[in-house]
Amino acid sequence: MSIVLNIPIGATGTATLIVADEHTAPRVGSGLIHVLATPVMINLIEAAALAACEKSLPTGHQSLGTRLDISHIAATPVGMRVTATAEVTRVDGRHIFFKVSARDEHDLIGEGVHDRVVVDVARFDKRVQEKISRSRAV
To answer: How many domains does the chain have?
Structure first.
């Protein structure tokens, strides 16, 4: 079963965060310095991609991240605002491709590309439940 995605090239989404202690590298286990952790920046980038595409998906469908190629190039201290932006660059079948970036109040802090695939939620959940059943049987 194939779906037709009606997501315009150039569609954008954003997500914003004020860096708090729980967003720092020591708190999420990705380092010792109290600055925005890379995994948190990536989460913000994914939220921006969701904002760019989810509203255009058919009912019963959702996008899932499949690829991230991100550089985290500048540190952001606690208390500073970070905004991630995702722009749709291409749609190919069920696949959505994005150019992404994250900026704090002073600098570009990260950039790269992100890919997502659109799935039928009911079919996807069925496969997950089957996998859970198989792992319990082992």
So the answer is: 1
